[in-house]
Amino acid sequence: xxxxxxxxxxxxxxxxxxxxxxxxxxxxxxxxxxxxxxxxxxxxxxxxxxxxxxxxxxxxxxxxxxxxxxxxxxxxxxxxxxxxxxxxxxxxxxxxxxxxxxxxxxxxxxxxxxxxxxxxxxxxxxxxxxxxxxxx
Length: 136
What we know:
By secondary structure, the chain is of the alpha+beta class.
């Protein structure tokens, strides 16, 4: 069972390891199709439109081991990577989970529901909630 843990607010590249710096740049590119460096994405300049506001990083663990790194930004967006890599496996678009792999989507969706990260108004919320509760 996957769980979102170790939530931290990210405001500077100095908080990140080299892979996470790359992940931030990829998050920004996924969001706005602009190829910009991570330090620009995390700039403290409020006028910089490239900034990923409200940037949070979570570990997603299974049996105590990190499996994914989940980034949430811009209040309703995010990107999920395999832990320690730049391989994107899912995205958060307008608060909803988007994932091509059905098993992974269910695993992440249930974990998001348990962590309170998926709004109850999302079209998939009930499916993930029932699966997390073991309901039919």
